[in-house]
Structure formats: structure tokens, C-alpha cells
């Protein structure tokens, strides 16, 4: 479990095929804390497991499922990614409950200034639109954000200067792909209502 509060930005050191999946090596040097093989780290919002370590460089194995549902398979040496260690018992929950289970990939429709932030527009896939509501939570590339407005397929969020500077959001360009995770509570409520025949 995560909070959507990015702790650092890291760099991909290597990305290589590994069986039916892919191994991605990430430099965790900027990420606070001690991490061991088997620990979970959110890579731009994707919950991944450390399978091997060499100093502060960690190897993560991406399964075919992860490659199909995220943009991590396209990451290459030098790619920048948001990093967050898993929430531990007693840690403050400053963002919202984030599982690190990406629901879909959206695209940037209006980038923001890397220093000033601003109004960030993201196109959301059809299947996820019903979970996007004004003042609701949405995780974009691992960053917990509040939806200011929903305009058809496009979600509007305001990104403050601090967030623009300490995450990758301020570096994204028009049409850049972004990981999206909707509020898990909304999905559970929808599922329970469906079981009762309420739509």
C-alpha cells in the first residue's frame, strides 16, 4: 500500500528482456530509507518488487501483465520515474490509499511548467471515466492528486509548484503516457452494488 506522496525521482539504469517479461534496474539513491530484496517500491505508481540489489541499484522484474498495462516496458536508460516506498505501520497517510495497481494509461493533454506547475489536463480511458469525479482522488504516475473538474474524457487537476518540481509531472510533454489508478473505494462500492442488482 502507498500514499501517492512521491519521495524521490529516480533514473532507470538498464532495461532488458527477461524470459516473457523484462528486468528494469533503477537507481534508488535519492529514495529515503533502507530497502531489501523482496521489498515493494512504486515505480511511477506501479507496485514492483525488488528481486536483486547491487548497492542502491535495484532490479525489478516486470511480468507480461505489467508490461501490458503500463508504460514501464518503454522505459530505457535515463528515463526518470517517481519513487515511493511501501507504507509501513505507523506511517502518516498524507495522500490517499494507493495500491500501486494501475487501472489504465492516460495521456497528457496539457503539460505544466516544471517550476510553476499549473493546470494539468489528462485524457482518461473510457473504462475509467465513471470513477473520476470532481474533488475525488486520482493517482497519476504515482502522484496523489485531487480532480478539479471532469470535462468528458479529460480530467483537470491543479499541480502546485512543489509537486511539479519534485516529481516527473513537470517534465512530461504533450501526449506523454501516464499511469492512472482510480480510487479503490469507488471500485469496491460499485462491485457491491452490482452484486445487489443496484446500478
Protein model, in words:
This protein folds into two domains: 8-85, Beta Barrel (Elongation Factor Tu (Ef-tu), domain 3), CATH 2.40.30; 104-194, Elongation Factor Tu (Ef-tu), domain 3 (Beta Barrel), CATH 2.40.30. A hairpin with a 2-residue loop joins strand 3 and strand 4 (46-54). With 199 residues, the protein is mostly beta strands. The mean pLDDT is 94. The longest helix has 12 residues, at 184-195. 35% of the residues are buried. It has helices spanning 64-69, 161-166, 184-195; strands at residues 8-18, 21-27, 40-43, 46-54, 57-62, 80-85, 104-110, 118-123, 137-140, 143-151, 154-159, 177-182. It contains three helices and twelve strands. The protein has a six-stranded antiparallel barrel.
Describe the SSE topology.
Layout lengths: L7 E11 L2 E7 L12 E4 L2 E9 L2 E6 L1 H6 L10 E6 L18 E7 L7 E6 L13 E4 L2 E9 L2 E6 L1 H6 L10 E6 L1 H12 L4
Antiparallel strand pairs: 1-2, 1-6, 2-5, 3-4, 3-6, 4-5, 7-8, 7-12, 8-11, 9-10, 9-12, 10-11
Task: Give the strand tally.
Answer: 12
Order of helices and strands: EEEEEHEEEEEEHEH
Low-confidence parts, pLDDT < 50 over ≥5 residues? Answer: none
| Mean pLDDT metric | 94
Largest sheet: 6 strands, antiparallel, barrel
> Outline, from the CA principal axes?
globular
- CA radius of gyration is 17 Å
Strand content: 35-45%
Total count of helical runs of at least 4 residues: 3
Structural class by sheet pairing and helices: mainly beta
- CATH topology group of the largest domain: Elongation Factor Tu (Ef-tu), domain 3
CATH architecture designation of the largest domain? Beta Barrel
Number of domains: 2
Strand order across the largest sheet: 1-2-5-4-3-6
Amino acid at each position: 500500500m502507498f500514499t501517492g506522496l512521491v519521495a524521490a525521482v529516480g533514473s532507470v539504469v538498464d532495461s532488458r528482456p527477461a524470459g516473457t517479461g523484462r528486468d528494469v534496474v533503477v537507481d534508488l539513491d535519492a529514495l529515503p530509507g533502507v530497502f531489501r530484496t523482496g521489498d515493494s517500491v512504486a515505480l511511477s505508481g506501479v507496485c514492483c518488487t525488488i528481486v536483486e540489489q547491487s548497492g542502491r541499484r535495484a532490479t525489478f522484474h516486470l511480468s507480461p501483465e505489467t508490461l501490458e498495462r503500463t508504460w514501464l516496458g518503454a522505459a530505457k536508460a535515463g528515463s526518470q520515474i517517481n519513487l515511493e516506498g511501501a507504507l509501513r505501520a505507523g506511517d502518516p497517510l498524507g495522500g490517499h490509499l494507493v495500491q500501486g495497481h494501475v487501472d489504465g494509461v492516460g495521456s497528457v493533454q496539457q503539460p505544466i511548467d516544471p517550476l510553476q506547475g499549473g493546470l494539468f489536463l489528462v485524457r482518461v480511458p473510457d473504462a475509467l471515466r465513471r470513477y473520476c469525479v470532481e474533488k475525488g482522488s486520482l493517482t497519476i504516475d504515482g502522484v496523489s492528486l485531487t480532480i478539479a473538474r471532469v470535462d468528458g474524457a479529460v480530467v483537470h487537476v491543479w499541480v502546485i509548484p512543489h509537486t511539479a518540481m519534485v516529481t516527473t509531472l513537470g517534465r512530461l510533454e504533450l501526449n506523454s503516457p501516464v499511469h492512472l489508478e482510480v480510487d479503490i473505494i469507488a471500485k469496491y462500492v460499485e462491485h457491491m452494488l452490482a452484486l445487489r442488482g443496484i446500478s
